[in-house]
């Protein structure tokens, strides 16, 4: 039996802290961000001067990259420190991007946007589909009529074929005070259709903290139905940031749809 500690209800309120942000959210893969910007511009039909809503923006890496391409960005995230970092970076770089701390289940952009995104599997955090669809509805509410949105999710079919329940990943993250050792133990909860992991951080002084997070194991048709039920049309799927077909081997499951 897998004894990995599983996430509790509303786990995201504690899981996403500054340690996770420093280790995971600082995107240094310029090629990945370049592909993301090109994908969003092409499939969401936007260009310089348009405005995009970035739901669950983290520290703003995607919004910043889009703003550098001339696209105005409005972002939101639950974590105050992430939003502060996103705004600081935008200010330092002189980017037309602004960020607000808010709950994505409720937050609507303060003006209708030309496009909207939820990127890097920031959707599907609950085993309650009625709660998860609220994020899709807020994407809908934040768009102009005719605007496109995209939800970037992992490919559940690939994960189920390749994941090992109880597998452990360990690595170190360098800081000025010394290395933080990270232990990430994975789990599959098939009864709840959830995939998650338990993170343990060991700091240079020997202290530890741990927390768990998880995501719903959504197949494409389930996402399709939720997006349709939220009011969207012209629903399409892609398998990666280059816009390739969604297949069993595809690393991502990206849903693109239009608000009528």
Count of distinct strands: 11
Number of helices in the DSSP assignment: 8
Q: What is the CATH topology classification name of the domain at 30-156 and 219-258?
A: Rossmann fold
Low-pLDDT runs: none
CATH superfamily name of the domain at 30-156 and 219-258? Vaccinia Virus protein VP39
CATH architecture of the domain at 30-156 and 219-258: 3-Layer(aba) Sandwich
Mean pLDDT: 95
The helical percent reads 25-40%
What characterizes the major β-sheet?
7 strands, mixed
Q: Kindly estimate the percentage of residues that lie in beta strands according to DSSP.
A: 25-35%
Which sequence of strands runs across the widest sheet? 3-2-1-4-5-11-10
* Gap from first CA to last CA: 48 Å
Shape: globular
CATH class category label of the domain at 30-156 and 219-258: Alpha Beta
Q: What is the string of SSEs from the N terminus onward?
A: HHHEHEHEEHEHEEEEHEE
Rounded Rg: 18 Å
């Amino acid at each position: 039996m897998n004894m990995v500690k599983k996430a509790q209800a509303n786990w995201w309120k504690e899981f996403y802290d500054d340690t996770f942000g420093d280790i995971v959210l600082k995107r240094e893969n310029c090629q990945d961000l370049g592909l993301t910007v090109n994908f969003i511009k092409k499939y969401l039909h936007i260009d310089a001067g348009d405005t995009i809503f970035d739901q669950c923006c983290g520290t703003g890496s995607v919004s910043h990259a889009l703003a550098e391409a001339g696209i105005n960005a409005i972002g939101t995230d639950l974590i105050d420190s992430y939003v502060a970092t996103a705004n600081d970076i935008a200010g330092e770089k002189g980017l037309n991007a602004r960020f607000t701390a808010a709950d994505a289940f409720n937050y609507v952009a303060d003006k209708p946007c030309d496009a909207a995104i939820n990127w890097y599997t920031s959707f599907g955090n609950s085993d309650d589909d009625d709660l998860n669809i609220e994020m899709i509805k807020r994407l809908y509410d934040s768009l102009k009529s005719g605007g496109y949105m995209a939800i970037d999710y992992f490919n559940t079919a690939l994960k189920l074929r390749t994941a090992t329940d109880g597998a452990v990943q360990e690595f170190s993250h360098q800081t000025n005070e010394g290395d933080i050792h990270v232990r990430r133990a994975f789990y599959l909860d098939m009864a709840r259709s959830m995939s998650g992991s338990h993170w343990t951080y060991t700091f240079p002084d020997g202290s530890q903290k741990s927390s768990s997070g998880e995501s719903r194991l959504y197949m494409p048709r389930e996402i399709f139905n939720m997006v349709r039920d939220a009011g969207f049309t012209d629903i399409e799927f892609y398998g990666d940031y280059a816009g390739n077909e969604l297949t069993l081997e595809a690393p991502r499951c990206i849903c693109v749809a239009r608000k009528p």
